[in-house]
Design a protein that fits this description.
The structure holds 2 protein chains of 2 kinds. Chain A is of the alpha/beta class. Chain A has helices spanning about 15-30, 65-70, 90-110, 145-165, 185-195, 210-225, 240-245, 255-270, 275, 280-285, 295-300, 310-325, 325-350, 360-365; strands at about 5-10, 35-40, 55, 75-80, 115-120, 170-175, 180, 195-200, 205, 210, 230-235, 240, 250-255. In chain A, the strands form 4 sheets. Chain A has a 7-stranded parallel sheet with strand order 3-2-1-4-5-6-11, sandwiched between helices. A two-stranded parallel ribbon of chain A has the order 7-10. A two-stranded parallel ribbon of chain A has the order 8-13. The longest helix of chain A has 24 residues, at about 325-350. Chain B is an alpha/beta fold. Chain B folds into 2 domains: about 10-155, no CATH class; about 165-325 and about 360-410, Glycerol-3-phosphate (1)-acyltransferase (3-Layer(aba) Sandwich), CATH 3.40.1130. Chain B is built from 16 helices and 9 strands. In chain B, the strands form 2 sheets. Chain B has a 7-stranded mixed sheet, with helices on both faces. Chain B starts with 9 loop residues before the first helix and ends in a 7-residue tail after the last helix. The relative contact order of chain B is 0.10. Classes of the chains: A alpha/beta, B alpha/beta.
Chain lengths: ~375, ~425
């Protein structure tokens, strides 16, 4: 065996970290000649034990992180710790922004070769003047009043400077569209799962989505291949919000936009939990944030397996089955899902042979 | 021309033109139209088929029998090819349009025969149960078709392109736009031959009228009058994105936010793009400033054309300025509600929503000669001297086209 390649995934107790770590372990088992060694780091151990994971209980903000990275000779760090917050809040800021700064600093200090970060297209901000297709170099005008977006914009702004200071490090940032999937808990899935999904009357912005499995695939792809830079990531297909909701089998409740803004403002000043009512910020239901995917296709060479419609149909199917669970619904849903799976596999075969190794397909059988 | 021809068919002579009932015409003549559609490529066959029909001495009953059989076999044939086939939605207007479109494809003799047959079908058998049966079938088809549309839209089974253009939405709104174009504003369009049948081109228009009706009518003009029914991508101002319903409608009709990247991308896709370089300054013009072109932006549209080598076609729209009479602007209100301007017209805001109703002026849309830009090369987009020169040139052209049209126009409402 050649030299061992150590990959450290932070935040393995959370969904994304656990998924990426187990996907990488499966890859390491399937191809032992790669010599991958997967380490996981989080404050507490993952609830469902990940077999083969070298787990280290620690906080990312621990100053001894440098020593850990040095002594373990970590090659790649995939930093996935992220605390969700609706209103900007100090503890989330400390964990997300300060935490990322500390991790990146430690990586630079310890001579880590590569760092992979997960970001969101929301950093571009939903602006009335947005061009129809945002490229990676578009200025980041993400909302300052929405916790998640503010933290991501801060992290990206820091990374911009960091990239210049440490040019020898391979820094990959993937900006994902709204993540959809039966298991993931993201603002968009929360939006589609709530009993009543309010939309703004007279606005039907275009949207992009990406399937949760494709997110994990893409992260692993950039961990295993050296792809410096920032990339927009979204599934094929740009859908108007109403169509997206129709595919996800969700009835939109139109609300007059001035009233919606006013009531959200009222809720935040009175301390009511507005995150429950509108998990996606109102501006993002009003103006489109559509990314240009040319860089993802041409430079990164990654194509998501699910199209937007397939991802949404699968999501809707899971929701329906969860709700009723009669045999018939499950049967028709199975048929729907199998049809999409066949289509997806057929497409994957016709794609370039260089782009393969899709574990996502195997997972479909359970 | 056709009316002067004497028909040998006895039923035609008996037909009273004043009794023409469009519904009946429709039912009796749909077979003729469908037969014409189906056998369009083979004119000789149609010739031989139609000739005897109009000359032979057939009784009304036999004639209808034959036509009904023909129709049945046609539908059967369609079902054999495509089991899901359902005849398209039906309306008298569509039938007439269909005939209009297809008559030109036939030899004069055939066309005459078709028209003759149509005329002969206008007889007085309104009391015939078969007529009503036909109408009933038609209604059923239409209702089923429309119920299907509603169902598909609720299930999210409709397609939009990457810009959000929704062809079904256009299909729904098109009759209204055509009504505004043809009936309400009685638009006269000249110079349509200057708009290329394919390939990229940039239409440069004057802007006016408080609401972007001129953009809608420009699109409708090309949809109705251009031989290939091209779709126009209007680039609209950022302000419209912030307005409820307006933004949704614009996007679904395939309009795109005015942004240089968007324009270049559209032109590179070989689309027909239109710009209103005056922007908000043009829309919000006061009535006394009408037909005086405002500054043509910063020349971004010229850069778009230079980068993509697209020809610029100057377009003047006359008549839109008088649709709303903006007497003054209320800057305080506009600042309060965040609008770029707030017009005060005799009807707005005093009469509420009634203030949105435009005046039925007479419109003229003139397309000028294209200005080629491909000789400069894409680097010329950075040549600011050239850009400003071309901007002024196009602006003067459009202004002169407006003056030329105004000189001919005798009345605002009657042209």
């Amino acid at each position: 065996m050649s030299e061992e390649k150590v990959i450290l995934v932070t935040g393995v107790a959370d969904y994304w970290g656990a998924q990426v770590a187990s996907r990488l372990i499966a890859q390491a088992d399937a191809q032992p000649d790669l010599g991958l060694h997967i380490m996981g780091l989080d404050i507490e151990a993952p609830k469902d034990e990940i077999k083969g994971l070298d787990f280290i209980p620690a906080d990312i903000r621990n100053p001894l992180l440098v020593n850990l990275l040095e002594s373990e000779a970590v090659d790649t760090v995939c930093h996935l710790v992220f605390m969700e917050s609706v209103r900007p809040n100090e503890s989330a800021f400390d964990m997300n922004v300060m935490g990322t700064m500390k991790v990146l600093g430690a990586c630079a200090e310890a001579g880590v070769r590569k760092v992979v970060l997960k970001s969101s297209l929301a950093v571009y901000g939903a602006q009335a003047a947005n061009p129809a297709f945002l490229t990676e170099d578009h200025p980041l005008q993400g909302s300052r009043s929405y916790g998640n977006t503010r933290d991501l914009v801060e992290i990206e702004a820091f990374c911009n400077g960091f990239r210049r200071q440490v040019p020898e490090m391979i820094l990959t940032i993937l900006r994902f569209a709204n993540i959809i999937g039966p298991k993931a808990n993201t603002p968009m899935t929360r939006f589609l799962k709530q009993p009543m999904a309010p939309v703004l009357m007279g606005f039907d912005p275009l949207m992009q989505v990406i399937h949760e499995k494709d997110v994990v695939e893409a992260l692993c792809y950039t961990i295993l291949n050296d792809m410096p830079g920032v990339y927009n990531m979204a599934a094929e297909g740009i859908l108007p919000l109403r169509k997206l909701m129709a595919l996800a089998a969700k009835m939109p409740i139109p609300v007059f936009h001035l009233f919606a803004y006013w009531s959200i403002g009222f809720m935040s000043t009175t301390g009511l939990n507005n995150g429950q009512v509108v998990p996606v910020e109102l501006d993002y239901l009003r103006y489109p944030v559509i990314a240009d995917l040319a860089k993802m296709h041409d430079e990164l060479g990654f194509t998501p397996h699910y199209t937007a419609e397939e991802a949404l149909r699968e999501f809707a199917g899971e929701q329906r089955v969860k709700r009723y669970m009669p045999e018939s619904a499950a049967m028709t849903y199975d048929e729907e899902r199998l049809r999409d799976t066949i289509e997806r596999r057929r497409r994957a075969r016709t794609l370039s042979p260089t782009e393969q190794v899709s574990l996502g397909e195997e997972e479909n059988h359970d | 021309m056709i009316d002067q021809n004497t028909s040998t068919d006895p039923s035609a002579e008996g037909a009273d033109q004043s009794q023409v009932n469009s519904q009946e015409l429709v039912v009796r003549s749909k077979e003729a139209a469908q037969a014409a559609e189906a056998s369009a490529p083979n004119e000789d066959e149609l010739d031989s088929e139609l000739e005897p029909a109009s000359s032979e001495e057939l009784s009304d009953e036999e004639m209808r029998q034959r036509l009904a059989e023909e129709l049945d076999s046609l539908i059967e044939r369609m079902h054999a090819i495509n089991p899901d086939y359902a005849p398209p939605a039906y309306s008298p207007q569509r039938l007439v349009d269909l005939l209009d479109r297809n008559l030109g494809r036939f030899s004069p003799k055939t066309a005459l025969a078709v028209l003759e047959r149509l005329r002969s079908s206008i007889s007085d058998d309104l009391f015939d149960p078969d007529t009503w049966k036909g109408i009933w079938y038609m209604l059923n088809y239409t209702i089923e078709y429309q119920a299907d549309i509603v169902k598909r839209r609720l299930n999210g089974e409709y397609d939009t392109d990457e810009w959000g253009f929704d062809p079904e939405f256009l299909q729904i709104t098109e009759p209204f736009l055509t009504f505004m174009y043809k009936t309400y504003w009685r638009t006269e369009t000249t110079g349509m031959e200057n708009v290329p049948e394919e390939g990229r081109a940039l239409l440069v228009c004057n802007h006016s009228g408080q609401l972007p009706w001129d953009g809608a009518m420009l699109g409708t003009a090309i949809y109705n009058e251009h031989p290939t029914q091209r779709m126009v991508r209007n680039l609209y101002a950022t302000w419209f994105t912030t307005l409820p319903f307006v933004s949704e409608t614009l996007v679904k009709l395939g309009q795109v936010l005015a942004d240089e990247d968007n324009g270049v991308r559209l032109l590179e896709q070989d689309q027909l793009v239109s710009v209103f370089p005056e922007g908000i300054k043009g829309v919000g013009k006061l009535f006394r400033e009408r037909y005086k072109l405002a500054r043509f932006g910063r020349g971004g549209f010229v850069q778009m054309a230079l980068k993509t080598g697209a020809p610029m076609i100057p377009v003047s729209i006359v008549g839109a300025e008088e649709t709303y009479i903006s007497l003054a602007k209320a800057p305080l209100i506009s600042k309060l509600i965040g609008f770029p301007f707030f017009p005060i017209t005799p009807a707005w805001p005093w009469l509420g929503p009634l203030g949105f109703i435009p005046l039925p002026t007479k419109w003229f849309i003139d397309f000028g000669e294209p200005i080629p830009t491909d000789s400069y090369g894409p680097e010329a987009a950075n040549n600011l001297v050239l850009v400003s020169q071309l901007t002024d040139q196009v602006r003067n052209l459009v202004q002169n086209m407006i003056y030329a049209r105004l000189a001919q126009r005798k009345s605002v409402f009657f042209g």
